[in-house]
Amino acid sequence: MSSAREQAGTAGGPAGDGEARAKVIPIGTGRGSRAGRDGRGARGGRAAQRRTEELADPTVLAGAEPGTESGLESGPEPVPAPGTEPAGAGTGPEPVSEPAGAPPERAPGRGVADSVADAVGHALAGPLGGLAGRLLGRGWEERAAGGLGFLRRRLTGEYEVDEFGFDPELTEKVLLSAVRPLAEKYFRLEVRGAENLPEKGGALVVANHSGVLPLDALMTQVAIHDHTPTHRHLRMLAADLVFVLPGVNELARKAGHTLACNEDAQRLLELGEIVGVWPEGFKGIGKPFADRYKLQRFGRGGFVSSALRAGVPIVPCSIVGAEEIYPMIGNARTLARLLGLPYVPITPTFPWLGPLGAVPLPTKWTIQFGEPIPTDSYPPEAADDPMLLFNLTDEVRETVQHTLYKLLVQRRSVFF
């Protein structure tokens, strides 16, 4: 084996030792010089020049162990021929490995969630913590931790919805929390007969409808959730209009609403859900103030058919207080047809007061759930018997109507 100096002399030729040393690739660097990685040859690096001088020194070569060069285990790397580039030149930069112990790269969503949670946590741990304790009262730390956990799950997508798009966590943490002050403080909702609602299993709640806007449905949803031991969610059957309005469609799905059809109603009942239906529809919610608390036609009994097929009880529900929140004294039918709406209400405050006219009057509300009407004793073919459907529908309607009359007699005032 020839020495590195002999190889350098062969490669350099008469040009001299300086030229030969410039062509030698340093040994033992593992990656070669920076100039070699950039494809510009082996010249230019101070470490490379110093290492080349050591290889050219015979005293250094003489002290090397037999079979090695400069005391290194590996043999000498080949010296390129004149006019050629060193090995590794022009091959591009080698990948740089991450240092040991470096934290793993986090997903973008989780990184944002952690950053937000950390920022809020640091803010509450400082002077804001004492202020929050005085303003929010005891237990604010647990509430804040729950809110941050909810925010983290929203940002990272760690939540679930069912086959209808119902998001129970969003409904309970956000939607019901937003509606609850309206029910408890503004309408001062009183709930009666909540023990008639089953703690588990399917049930069909049938209620009267009124009030121009369907606030009575939202109040019923809050009442069932807050007054059942297992905090059950009411799955409401909504009209087609709800699912064609931009923004309202997505919000209704998240809140557990679904299309008012027998197939969806029966599917939810078979899954053991509490389903709410308002058979009067737009005729009930948009009736004149002079016809308040007079039930309209209950349809053809489709809700009874769904209850019979699923074998679940029917719970009559009577709501007092919703008729007076928007006293409807007129209907702009021409404008309603142009807008594709069932009605455009005219009240003592709307449209005369503009946006202020949309504020409901603070009436006193009462929701009473009657005794359930069982359906599990009927055979499966009973759902196709029109006479039975008519009789059960009429029974439910009469129960709701008579309960409304009793509540109106007991009521001391519309507002108190």
From TrEMBL:
Q: Does the keyword Acyltransferase apply?
A: yes
Q: Which InterPro entries does the entry mention?
A: Plipid/glycerol_acylTrfase
Q: Which GO terms describe its molecular function?
A: acyltransferase activity
Q: Where is the Phospholipid/glycerol acyltransferase domain?
A: 203-322
Pfam family name, one = Acyltransferase
Question: Cross-referenced SMART domains, in alphabetical order?
Answer: PlsC
Q: Which UniProt keywords apply?
A: Acyltransferase, Transferase
Return the Low complexity bias intervals. 84-100
- Segments carrying the region annotation (Disordered) are 1-114
Where does the source fall among the domains of life?
Answer: Bacteria
Does this entry carry the keyword Transcription regulation?
Answer: no
Q: What is this protein called?
A: 1-acyl-sn-glycerol-3-phosphate acyltransferase
Which organism was this protein described from? Streptacidiphilus cavernicola
